Each structure stands twice: as structure tokens, then as C-alpha cells.
Amino acid sequence: MRIDLRNNPFYLSDKDIEWVNDMLSSMTEAEKISQLFCLITYTDDKEYLKFLAGKLKVGGVMTRTMSLDELINTVSGLQENSRVPMLISANLEAGLNQACSEGTRVGCEMGIAATDDVKYARVLGRVIGEEASALGINWAFAPIIDIDYNFRNPITNTRTFGSDPDRVSEFGKAYVEEIQKYGIAASIKHFPGDGVDERDQHLLASVNSLSVDEWDKTFGKAYKTSIEAGAKTVMVGHIMQPAWSKKLNPSLKDEDIMPALIAPELLNGLLREHLGFNGLIVTDSSTMAGMGTVMPREKAVPMTIAAGCDMFLFTKNLEEDMKFMADGVKNGVITHERLDDAVTRILALKASLKLHEKQRDGSIMPDRERAKAIVGCSEHKKISREIADKSITLVKEQKGVFPITPERYKRILVYKKEGKASAVSAGIIEGSADRLISRLKKEGFEITVFEPGGGWEGMATPVKEVYENYDLIIYIANLATKSNQTVVRLEWAEPMGADVPVYMNSVPTVFISLENPYHLIDVPRIKTFINTYGSTDEILNALMDKLSGKSDFTGVSPVDAFCGKWDTRL
User: Fold this and answer.
1) Would residue 308 be called left, alpha or beta, if left means φ above 0 and alpha means ψ between -120 and 50 degrees?
2) Residue 461: predicted pLDDT
3) Cβ atoms within 10 Å of 522's Cβ, excluding its own
4) Where are the alpha helices (DSSP H) in 7-160?
């Protein structure tokens, strides 16, 4: 396949192309195979980094969250030991806090969308770009341009810009254009599009069930918009798109339809030809179960590259997966032409980011003092506060319930509904309900936290005790979507749903959801409902101002918070 290195998204000069060709021709077959791998590190251990970059000679590494000093040590250790400059990636969806503990959490994508102003998608890209580039990160596994059509999907949710294809397209493009100004490649994900199925592609091969026309007008539009804006890479998911697979290959039987990362008709026919994408294609994490549910791993590993992906993300067993890939080349599953094609795109991406030049002049190594001045700086924290203020959304309001002040509602009964954090939960902070409660106490409210007691039929606490002892009831939900969790719904205490909101027709009741915009499905008759899209200090402080009437609610819901149900609007 002829690769156009001079145009979108590489835009290489003759000198850049010469470097790509020279580097490719200097590589052994084993080195080319190693370039296909993007591995992961949780540590800045010098010997391990030397092993990844100097011995294995992999093409890239993704970092998990570390301290600033550890991250600089990691990037420096990788780049100083690598003959070919390395791609250093991170999940940079909501802020640099997903890579560096001192980094700024700007706001999740749904919070950005709730501002109803595309400039904040650009701001998201700028702040992440400034902080990540200062640390030597050059590849963002973001933005997510999935469309959150199915409120039951347990993984997309607040990680997306919402359910409106036009908004997703516009905000995704803005992020791509902005972050790539900082020498960081964007990776639009998760092709061919998550958010339709209610199942999690981390756990199985999920399905984007839209028709060809429906897909073109929605996900296709989102991908086309970012591709034309110059997105350098696409991350491909463990997601099937049966309508397009059968259109492009009518002979396919249902059992032959594969998730996109091993489906050549989707990678080549849909992504390359129909959408015109010329950049680098990377698989989503190969440790996810979706690929393994449809094909033996020894076949699936080389098939990702043979089908049209250029890089393979992570391994389940390092030695075994690298052998599977090498065997794929040896037995012809991956042709030498396909191998060279993939490695050429890897090198072209690196050249488009000027990594070869930065390697020569030493600027590929992050400057520790400069990084400390930029990462988590006061200007970026101010932006986070501004987005928090503009995004918090009042979905439903009982007339007259605001403002919430000690003079009006001295005695508050609080119900806490909390989950646990996860590496894929995009920033959930455990204990956020208690942090909000402490703020309420500081303002002078008397807080009682509900504890379920005994009492079955005929022995429950008299409702009169609630009416007489509390002026207001507040529910605080902190349940975020995350992998390996098949559903995100409110679960109620024994006995007999002891903490279900049953007093709202007698005591003013406010439901605050810190992480999930769809809880109305389980509390449809709640009269006042608020979505905050996170629980950082900036968000909780902005929320307190809005509850007390010091500032207005201005956020606009990017999704149908009523979940398509008539009774949630009551």
C-alpha cells in the first residue's frame, strides 16, 4: 500500500521522509516487529526502562499515573535508551491528572460539553497539551468521540461529549486541533464507536448496531470531522459494526463478523478508504477480553496487524505475545509488505512530531524545572474552576427549593450512595460524599447521615420522625462507570429499600449526582436533580455556591438525563 507521507496527517518534508526511509531500511526484521508494540509502565525503575527501550526496542510506552518526578524519570529513561525515539502515551481525556498526580484535572468530556461552549474543548486540549508536552508525553489516547446513545452503557458515560453527534463532532475536532499544536498526537477513539451497546467492550466484543446510513450520519461524521482536522491516530476497539462489515464483505456470515481491530473490511474499507484516514491505527488494549472471545490469542495477535492496525497496545504475557507476533510474520499471516507498511506509519508519526529532530538536539528530554512551573499551575487550576462553574447542570427543580441556607433548612438528612475508584473510571474520587458533607457542616447545617436500621413489616421507624426532625433531604451519589462493571445503577439498602426516596412529597429533597448523569432512571419522581460530572474540590466548591444561591446553574445536559422515560419528568 502506498502511504502518502506528505499530506494529512503526517505532512512530512523531504528530509523527514528520508529519515523514515533510512530508519526503516536500517532495521532488522526483529526490530520492525518490536516497533509494533506499545507497552505500559507503572514504574520509573531504570533497569526496567532500559529493558523496554534498549533491549526490547518497542515503538512506544503508555504511562499510568505517577508523580511528576517519577514521570520525568520514566520519559528520560526511555528516550535516552532508545535508538528510535519513542512514543510516550497516556489517557489524557479529562486532564493530565490521568498521567501525573500533580497534573490538572480540567474536566471530563461530558462536563466540558455541559458548558455548551466549544471553546472549552479547545481549552481542554490546550491545558493538557501544555502540561503533557512539558513532561515529554507525545501521544494522547484522546479524545473519546464515542456517542453516548445508550444510558445503560457501563463505560462511555461522562467520558464522552454526550449523545448529540454534532456536538461530539465539533468538540472532538476542537480538542484534536488544539492538542496537536503542542507536538502531541491525538488518538480519536474507540472506532467504530462505543455507546450504542449496553455492554462493555472490555469484557466482550460489543456491537455498534447502527445501519450503514445511521452510522455515516453519526459516528462516521464524528470520525470524518476529526480526520479532516488532522487527527494523527485512531484507536480501534473490540467493537463490531455488522452493517458496514456486511456491506463491504457481503459473503460474511454472522459468526465471521469480527471486532474492528481484527476486521480488515472495517480497517481498510471503512476507515482507510471510506473515511480517508491515512494516519496510524492502534488497537485498544489487547488485554481486554473482547478479542479473546472471538479468536484464539495466537491467531488474534498477528491478525490485528495483518488486518490493518499498525500498533499493538499492551500484552497479556509479554514473551508469549511477542512470539505470537513474530510467528505471524514467519508464517506469512503478516506479509513483509504489511509489516513495512505498519512500521512506516509508526516512523512517520514520530517524524511528524519531530521526535527525530528533538532526539538529535536533546529537547526530547523533559526539563524538570520547566515542568514544575507548568504542571498544575494556578492558571490551569483557575480554568478548572471556571469549567466547574459553567458545567454543573440543574436537570429538575422543585419550585422554591433554592436557595439552600441554614436559615431555611437547618437540619438536613443525607443519604450517601458511593462506589469505588478504578483505573478506567476517569477520575472518581472516593469519599466525595463526605467531602461535600463537611462543606455543608462548615456552612452551619446540622447533618445527619442516614444509617439503615432494623424493622420489617409493622416495625419500621414512623415517618413522622423524618417529617419532624429534618427540614431537607439530600442524596449524594458518587457512582462512576468503570471497566469490569456491567451496570451502573443505584442499589438500595435492606430492609425493603430502606434508603429509597419516599419522603420527597413531604420533605424537600435534592438528589446530587457527582459522576453519573443517568440516575433519574432509579429515582424518577425526585423533584430536584443535579449533575456535576465530577467531584474535584473545584466542582464541590462551585456546587456549594449554586446550592446557596451565590451563583446560577448554567450547565446544559449533553445527554437525555431523563433516560427516555416519561415518569422521570414528573
Assistant:
1) left
2) 76
3) 18
4) 14-26, 29-35, 46-50, 68-80, 109-114, 119-134
CA distance 222 to 166: 8
3-state secondary structure 487-498: CCCCCCCCCCCC
Instruction: Tell me the angle at which helices 318-330 and 297-307 cross, rounded to the nearest 10 degrees.
Output: 60
Domains of the chain: 14-374 (3.20.20.300), 392-569 (3.40.50.1700)
φ/ψ region of 136 (left if φ > 0, alpha if ψ in -120 to 50, else beta) reads left
pLDDT of residue 454: 66
Rounded CA gap, 265 and 212, in Å? Answer: 14
For 312, residues 6+ apart whose C-beta sits below 8 A from its C-beta are 36, 37, 38, 282, 283, 286, 301, 304, 305, 321, 325
CA 570, 500, 503, 391 dihedral sign is negative
Alpha carbons 184 and 377: distance in angstroms, whole number: 20
Kind of pairing, strands 60-63 and 37-41? Answer: parallel
pLDDT at 421: 62
Q: Which triple of cell numbers denotes residue 234?
A: 485512531
The CA distance from 367 to 359, in Å, is: 14
Question: How many C-beta atoms lie closer than 10 Å to residue 149's C-beta?
Answer: 24
As a whole number of angstroms, the distance between CA 121 and CA 127 comes to 10
Q: How far apart are CA 144 and CA 188, in angstroms?
A: 6
What's the pLDDT score for residue 496? Answer: 81
Q: What is the pLDDT of residues 331-387, one digit of tens each?
A: 999 999 999 999 999 999 999 999 999 999 999 999 999 999 999 999 999 999 999
Nearest to 515 by CA among 159, 9, 124: 159
CA distance 285 to 307: 16
In this prediction the pTM is 0.96
Supply the pLDDT for residue 487.
Answer: 87
**Whole-number pLDDT of residue 541:** 98
- For residues 487 and 206, what is the distance between their CA atoms, to the nearest angstrom? 14
List CB contacts of 439: < 8 A, sequence separation 6 or more.
540, 541, 544
Residue type, 42: Y
Q: Kindly list the strands in the beta sheet with 472-478, ordered across the sheet, starting from the edge strand earlier in the chain.
A: 393-396, 528-531, 509-513, 472-478, 411-418, 446-449
Residue 423 has a pLDDT of 47
Which residue among the candidates 16, 146, 200, 284 is catalytic per the annotation? 284
Residue with cell 490521568: 98
Q: Tell me, yes or no, if 284 is annotated catalytic.
A: yes
Q: What is the CB neighbour count within 10 angstroms for residue 217?
A: 12
Distance in angstroms (rounded) separating the CA atoms of residues 387 and 390 = 5
- Is 65:98 a contact under the CB 8 Å cutoff? yes
Please report which helix (H) or strand (E) contains residue 455, including its range. Answer: none
Write out residues in the chain with pLDDT < 50, as ranges: 423-426
Measured CA to CA, the distance from residue 254 to residue 242 in angstroms comes to 8
